[in-house]
Automatic annotation (TrEMBL):
Record gene name: ald
Family: Belongs to the AlaDH/PNT family.
Organism in which the protein naturally occurs: Pseudomarimonas arenosa
One term of GO molecular function: nucleotide binding
Name the record gives this protein: Alanine dehydrogenase
Lineage: Bacteria, Pseudomonadati, Pseudomonadota, Gammaproteobacteria, Lysobacterales
Ranges where the Alanine dehydrogenase/pyridine nucleotide transhydrogenase N-terminal domain occurs: 4-137
Length: 371
């Protein structure tokens, strides 16, 4: 199979879909890999490294999309990229379709087979291709929030860990999954006071057993959210419903409960955000203010630490990429129910139920669409 790796074009996105080591693995399985010129240069992955791994460098994304049977990316295809996709071509990347009707329409029109990293599953019920970026985003959310709390950034001027004689900041984490636990670990490491809210009692029990009195765990209700907002200096939105739009858990009216200069970091922004006042931002202009509350809603947070993120992502995505290349999309998807769960669009059909429901498409089960 001919596999193409284009340079990412989303604002301040420096990750690349495949490391040189990943390219070498695919080449050793008998496949061809083409990589766009200087696609990974900004994070030290030079053309020379890809060529030594057996890949070929091409000048333009247009050439990659025109020739490759499978496109491996990081971020969802931008409008110009959707227009270059074609029927039968495999697109393997993050998609986050539920809050993005324009991208969804573009993929449907293209006729491609679009596999979303964020809905591929594993035997434990986890999301193995989303997890590494969730780990990165969870950890970044605290350093981003800490920076936004600085007075020069519009924040309240609170130091997360405090100092002797001055109390530390209160950090509220909504969601106890991969993002939430990584955010909590970072916040605890900076000596902040951390409260995690979740609707899974099993998860709350696990977190309590893991961290004891270093954190407070609360069952997530509207009352619990409102009460915790009153004293929170930093709020991390870490809620995920796989493949679906994120629920709005903090309304604009509830911002009035918060202290002026407090910060909201919405890690769920890729799925539409879990705060009513959230709107996607970029690393170039990461924050904005609503009713005295600072919002950080960067839609590609892990892109800020692109080298770490690229290696972590390839570690997770490569085994499935090899399956797709070795067997072809149809056989690989039908042979592996966990990879099949990643199929969101095939031949103009929406094959992921939550996306179809949220965007008003007819849902066609993935196995039926492939059949």
């Amino acid at each position: 199979m001919l596999i193409g790796v284009p340079k990412e074009i989303k604002n301040h996105e420096y990750r690349i879909g495949l490391t040189p080591a990943g390219a070498r693995e695919l080449v050793q399985h008998g496949h061809q890999v083409i990589v766009q010129n200087d696609g990974g240069k900004s994070i030290g992955l030079t053309n020379d490294l890809y060529e030594k791994a057996g890949a070929r460098i091409v000048d333009t994304a247009e050439e990659i999309f025109a020739k490759a049977e499978m496109i491996i990316k990081v971020k969802e295809p931008q409008a110009v990229e959707c227009q270059m996709l074609r029927e039968g071509q495999i697109l393997y990347t993050y998609l986050h379709l539920a809050p993005d009707p324009e991208q969804t329409a573009g993929l449907v029109k293209s006729g491609c087979t679009a596999i979303a990293y964020e809905t591929v599953t594993d035997r434990k019920g986890g999301l193995p291709l989303l997890a590494p970026m969730s780990e990165v985003a969870g950890r970044m959310s605290i350093q981003a929030g800490a920076h936004a709390l600085e007075r020069a950034q519009g924040g309240s001027g609170v130091l997360l860990g405090g100092v002797p004689g001055v109390k530390p900041a209160n950090v509220m984490v909504i969601g106890g999954g991969v993002v939430g636990i990584n955010a909590a670990r970072m916040a605890m490491g900076m000596n902040a006071r951390v409260t995690i809210l979740d609707r899974s009692l099993d998860r709350l029990k696990y977190l309590d057993e893991l961290y004891g009195d270093r954190i407070t765990t609360l069952y997530s209700t509207a009352d619990a959210i409102e009460e915790t907002l009153r004293y929170a200096d930093l709020v991390i939105g870490a809620v995920l419903i796989p493949g679906a739009a994120a629920p709005k858990l903090v309304t604009r009216a509830q911002l009035a409960l918060m202290k002026p200069g407090s910060v909201l970091v919405d890690v769920a922004i890729d799925q539409g955000g879990c705060f009513e006042t959230s709107k996607a931002t970029t690393h170039q202009n990461p924050t904005y203010e609503v009713d005295g509350i600072i919002h950080y809603c960067v839609a590609n947070m892990p892109g800020g630490v692109a080298r770490t993120s690229t290696f972590a992502l390839t570690n997770a995505t490569l085994p499935f990429a090899v399956q797709l290349a070795n067997k072809g999309a149809k056989r690989a998807l039908l042979d592996d129910t966990h990879l099949l769960n990643g199929l969101n669009v095939h031949a103009g059909q929406i094959t992921y139920e939550a996306v179809a429901r949220d965007l008003g498409y007819t849902y066609v089960p993935a196995a039926k669409a492939l059949g």
